[in-house]
Design a protein that fits this description.
The protein is of the alpha+beta class. It folds into two domains: 3-69, Arc Repressor Mutant, subunit A, CATH 1.10.10.10; 85-229, Chorismate lyase-like (Chorismate lyase, 3-Layer(aba) Sandwich), CATH 3.40.1410. The protein has helices spanning 3-19, 32-39, 43-55, 85-92, 111-117, 156-161, 163-169, 189-194; strands at residues 59-62, 66-69, 75-78, 97-108, 124-134, 137-147, 175-186, 202-212, 217-226, 230-233. A hairpin with a 4-residue loop joins strand 8 (202-212) and strand 9. It starts with a helix and ends in a 7-residue tail after the last strand. InterPro entries: Bact_HTH_transcr_reg (IPR050679), Chorismate_lyase_/UTRA_dom_sf (IPR028978), TreR (IPR012770), Tscrpt_reg_HTH_GntR (IPR000524), UTRA (IPR011663), WH-like_DNA-bd_sf (IPR036388), WH_DNA-bd_sf (IPR036390). Pfam families: GntR, UTRA.
């Protein structure tokens, strides 16, 4: 077995043990020396596995203390990246996520949407409302709008699978960049209808303004998240 396969195998084993509670939240993993013995491998290989665990948001390395197990009941959502939900699901290795399309169709832009897209009120826009069920609870509501001029055809089946996969592979849209805004808002009647909110009366809202290479704003999405289940992460490095 190559070193590459070895560290990935160790990562997968430790990841599974964190997910199933063998290593509990807020406890310290065995030391690098202990892990080296447990897996009969080099310290370099263990460090690579731990680095990958940290990148996936499963542990936090603490100087002089070891690797702290983080709360994996919260999913990590990247702030700066432009990633589809299906790609995110694949990257975090979750199989217990279900998408339900609640609303789908064409509508004429109202004053709010026409202002966002800077188009006339009569402009046709696709409206897609989807909830994401994770571990049996509906905890994300995605409200997406797409300009029909840029997305001539859309179906409910595409929305249930992956809109971005369709846009890039079938329509070959040159999706380039997005501006994101994160706010906390009071729950709406729509949130209460489509989400399992428990006693929460606010949601975290990530507003995505997505542009093509020619700078055309073709998508606006509000991703509405239950407060207790999500953390939003980014990686930053100070310039020297």
């Amino acid at each position: 077995m190559t070193k590459s396969n070895k560290y990935k195998q160790i990562f997968e084993d430790l990841s599974e043990k964190i997910q199933n509670g063998t290593y509990k939240t807020n406890t310290i993993l065995p030391s690098e020396n202990e892990l080296t013995g447990m897996y009969s491998t080099s310290r370099e290989t263990i460090r690579k596995a731990l680095t990958l665990l940290a990148q996936k948001g499963l542990i936090q390395k603490l100087r002089g203390k070891g690797s702290l197990v983080l709360d994996v009941s919260r999913l990590n959502f990247p702030i700066s990246g432009l990633v589809s939900f299906k790609e995110l699901q694949s990257s975090i290795g979750r199989e217990d996520i279900e998408t339900t399309v609640h609303e789908f169709g064409l509508e004429n832009a109202d004053s709010s949407l026409s202002s966002i897209f800077e188009v006339a009120d009569s402009t046709e826009i696709w409206n897609v409302v989807r909830s994401r069920r994770i571990q049996g609870e509906r905890i994300i509501l995605d409200k997406s709008y797409f300009l029909k001029s840029e997305v001539p055809l859309l179906t409910k089946e595409i929305c249930e699978n992956s809109i971005y996969e369709y846009l890039e592979k079938e329509l070959e849209l040159p999706i380039d960049f997005a501006k994101k805004e994160i706010v906390v808002e009071e729950c709406t009647d729509e949130d209460r209808r489509y989400l399992d909110l428990d006693d929460y009366d606010h949601v975290v809202v990530v507003k995505n303004y997505v542009h093509l290479k020619d700078a055309t704003l073709f998508e606006y999405t509000e991703s509405r998240h239950r407060l207790d289940k999500f953390r939003f992460v980014d990686f930053a490095r100070r310039k020297n």
